């Protein structure tokens, strides 16, 4: 398909966004259906968490490698392979008859999700090269990422209540099959650099094992604690593996992650802001859902609908405003404005009452998620601004890795802080949740400080060539 035509680029964006929405929805859909899964397969309380952890470990651990494979083998090839693995794993999840079978299928699902997600952003920034058009495309992509979780909670509640938990996975089959067919038709076939250009096997082993072990250690802190010998030992081993990976990248002839990428302040700064911001957003999503259900007494489906205004606010900002404001004021300024709005929402979180009203106490929080819709597209643009075309896949994989680590770390730290408040009464739970929201506020302050002091404005130069972009960093 001729991508010089706007219609063709629009179809490509639709395929990328729809595919990512399917993968993102999966996480929140499963979280809502956990009680039904436990009843259906006989999971223990401890074992049930592995339906989430297995996916997170595979997804977070394989993103970096998947991004580089996209650069080497061709991003469309890796994207379609990821969709195929994810769709097959969804079938295996839907027909699983035992806890072990479901956990294994969820790990495979995470691997497929990593392959597709790691290269999607890289394809987007190479397809949309004009500054305004790229801004709009990033806005749509960020909306899918930020609002997908809210939509998934509604969908998960409806599917689990009406059709049974199997269908939260089986619904992916027709969507995944259609996405594969359309991806082969509308996405550009790039040959890639070839394995000889960067087949760093040792680096791949060090990065994947280190990231998987790091995510595993983080998600297990709720059970074992942050200062236990087990956590310290596993965390130390993960740190050594990742340090070995960095040393390897500095000496390898064909590194998996070229360290020259980090010469750009916007690359490493945006990844750090991403980690902090996503940690705050995911801990908010996790604990506001608990507040609605355990303190205010909402059901799963009602909780999903209660969080829909957040998806609307994010969509309005990311699809309608973020690109326009970034073109006029710069992505850094828009990011900072979005972070200020999110910090304002923390006031409402820190004073949430145990007998709160949705209209006066919860709805303002959802509306202020408008800030996330401003911040995420701008941050994504900054994070990808310093990547060369041949590094678009690994830059995308790195950015997604920061997101996954931030999500796991944010929820784990906030859960630890919330758990320090003893008791299961609504008052005790509410106190714990407010402390968790305080963790999110600290993360947002840190994100704002890094964005203000590290990131630099990327200003597109004026050009008469719509299919090209020249950028100057000020």
Provide an overview of this structure:
Helices cover 78% and strands 1% of the residues. The protein has 474 residues and is mostly helical. It folds into two domains: 6-199 and 254-473, Growth Hormone, Chain: A; 200-253. Strands 1-2 form a two-stranded antiparallel ribbon. Helix 3 (50-73) packs antiparallel against helix 4 (75-94), helix 5 packs across helix 18 and helix 6 (131-162) crosses helix 17. It is globular and about 60 Å long. Residues 460-474 have low confidence and may be disordered. InterPro entries: EmrB-like, MFS, MFS_dom, MFS_trans_sf. It holds the Pfam family MFS_1. It is a multi-pass membrane protein. This is Putative MFS-type transporter EfpA.
Short overview:
This protein is an all-alpha fold and 474 residues long. The chain has helices at 6-41, 45-48, 50-73, 75-94, 99-127, 131-162, 167-170, 172-186, 201-219, 221-224, 229-251, 265-295, 300-306, 308-329, 331-350, 358-367, 370-384, 392-418, 426-453; strands spanning 458-460, 471-473.
């Amino acid at each position: 398909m001729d991508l010089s035509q706007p219609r063709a680029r629009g179809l490509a964006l639709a395929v990328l966004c729809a595919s990512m929405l399917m993968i993102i929805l999966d996480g929140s859909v499963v979280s809502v259906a956990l009680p039904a899964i436990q009843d259906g397969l006989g999971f223990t309380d401890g074992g049930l968490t592995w339906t989430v952890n297995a996916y997170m470990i595979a997804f977070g651990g394989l993103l970096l490698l998947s991004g580089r494979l996209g650069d080497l083998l061709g991003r469309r090839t890796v994207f379609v392979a990821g969709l195929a693995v994810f769709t097959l794993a969804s079938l295996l999840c839907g027909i699983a008859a035992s806890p072990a079978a479901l956990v294994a299928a969820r790990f495979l699902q995470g691997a497929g999700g990593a392959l597709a997600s790691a290269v999607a952003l890289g394809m987007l920034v190479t397809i949309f090269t004009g500054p305004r058009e790229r801004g709009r495309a990033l806005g749509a992509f960020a909306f899918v990422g930020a609002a997908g979780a809210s939509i998934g909670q509604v969908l998960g509640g409806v599917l689990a209540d009406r059709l049974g938990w199997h269908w939260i996975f089986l619904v992916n089959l027709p969507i995944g099959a259609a996405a594969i067919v359309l991806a082969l038709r509308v996405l550009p076939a790039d040959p890639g650099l070839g394995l000889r250009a960067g087949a760093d096997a040792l680096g791949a082993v060090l990065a994947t094992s280190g990231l998987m072990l790091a995510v595993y250690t983080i998600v297990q802190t709720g059970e074992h604690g942050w200062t236990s010998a087990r956590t310290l030992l596993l965390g130390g081993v993960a740190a050594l593996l990742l340090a070995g990976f960095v040393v390897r990248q500095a000496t390898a002839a064909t590194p998996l992650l070229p360290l020259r990428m980090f010469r750009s302040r916007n690359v490493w700064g945006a990844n750090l802001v991403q980690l902090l911001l996503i940690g705050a957003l995911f801990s908010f999503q996790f604990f506001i859902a608990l507040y609605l259900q355990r303190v205010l007494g909402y059901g799963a489906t009602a909780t999903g609908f209660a969080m829909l205004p957040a998806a609307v606010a994010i969509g309005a900002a990311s699809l309608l405003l973020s690109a326009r404001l970034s073109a006029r004021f710069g992505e850094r300024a828009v990011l900072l404005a979005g972070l200020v709005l999110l910090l304002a929402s923390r006031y409402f979180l820190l004073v949430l009452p145990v007998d709160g009203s949705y209209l006066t106490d919860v709805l303002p929080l959802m509306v202020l998620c408008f800030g996330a819709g401003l911040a995420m597209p701008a941050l994504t643009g900054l994070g990808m601004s310093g990547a060369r075309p041949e590094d678009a896949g690994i830059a995308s994989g790195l950015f997604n890795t920061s997101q996954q680590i931030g999500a796991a770390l944010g929820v784990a730290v906030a859960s630890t802080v919330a758990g320090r408040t003893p008791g299961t009464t609504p008052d005790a739970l509410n106190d714990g949740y407010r402390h968790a929201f305080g963790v999110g506020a600290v993360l947002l302050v840190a994100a704002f400080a890094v964005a203000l002091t590290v990131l630099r404005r990327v200003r597109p130069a004026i050009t008469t060539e719509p299919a090209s972009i020249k950028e100057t960093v000020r």
